[in-house]
Amino acid sequence: MSTExxxxxxxxxxxxxxxxxxxxxxxxxxxxxxxxxxxxRRIEAVSFxxxxxxxxxxxxxxxxAGVPRGKGVSxxxxxxxxxxxxRAMAAEVDEVNVVVVATDTFSKRNQNVTTGEMLDAWExxxxxxxxxxxxxxxxxxxxGCPFEGETPPERVAEIARRAAATGADEIxxxxxxxxxxxxxxxxxxxxxxxxxPGVPLRFHFHNTRNTGYANAxxxxxxxxxxxxxxxxxFGGCPFAPAATGNIATEDLLYxxxxxxxxxxxxxxxxxxxxxxxxxxxxxPVPGLRGRAGGFPARTERDS
Length: 303
Fold this sequence. Notes:
The chain is of the alpha/beta class. It has a single domain, classed as Aldolase class I (TIM Barrel), CATH 3.20.20. The chain contains 12 helices and 8 strands. It has helices at residues 11-15, 25-37, 60-66, 82-90, 104-111, 115-128, 153-165, 182-195, 212-221, 249-258, 267-281, 289-292, and strands at residues 6-9, 42-47, 74-78, 95-101, 134-140, 170-175, 201-205, 226-229. The protein has an 8-stranded parallel sheet with strand order 1-8-7-6-5-4-3-2. Strand 7, helix 9 and strand 8 (226-229) form a beta-alpha-beta unit.
């Protein structure tokens, strides 16, 4: 059955925050502009983290000042506290996203707070976010933790329940270290829907162990219609050991389109963006669609 799937382009934030190279502001704006031209209509553009902790995102305000406006694009900014929210509102983001890590050890390393303390921070951010600005919670390490091992699914469901009860317009489940498999996707989807009925669900997959695309297609089979991806497949978490890149937007598009789903994005344009970004970063592009091309056109064999 054909489904309309929204692909959230997270390359400008999650794709770049783990890079050793500090990407120039103009290149970040170019990445966003290319993504808009390719059809992306939800883009995670920036993070309002402390510049000392995430120097790659220190120019968030300058990036937001230069992004294309008036094209029906919703720009997402990551915020962790009230100061971040104030910066996000001044920069005129359309959505704010708050990350709550599902395990205490990872949460302390990532955000210097426990999971419960970050949920408290989320509640304050949600209460102070102006009307009309979409608010989402990403539950990080939902599939597993590099420090604590298995993440109890009932813990993920409880975080989702509390997020929904305190105003989340959307809940994203993130496989931050790329350990998830399709069976977990099905289980967590059903648990979170039961815990947060009526709240739209989004997934954020990494391809660390080559299961990201299978997980994404499984989520769509479960009725999920919003997926994160990063042009070229760049990205990772700077606080998680060996957490390699996000699923590549162009590769995800190929899988979705060949499965009969509709996204509104141009595969070739996104693949070209991934190749361009690889040049900016001076790194090989993890995504494969740009190298292999699309489904080959039929050619007549010589008689």
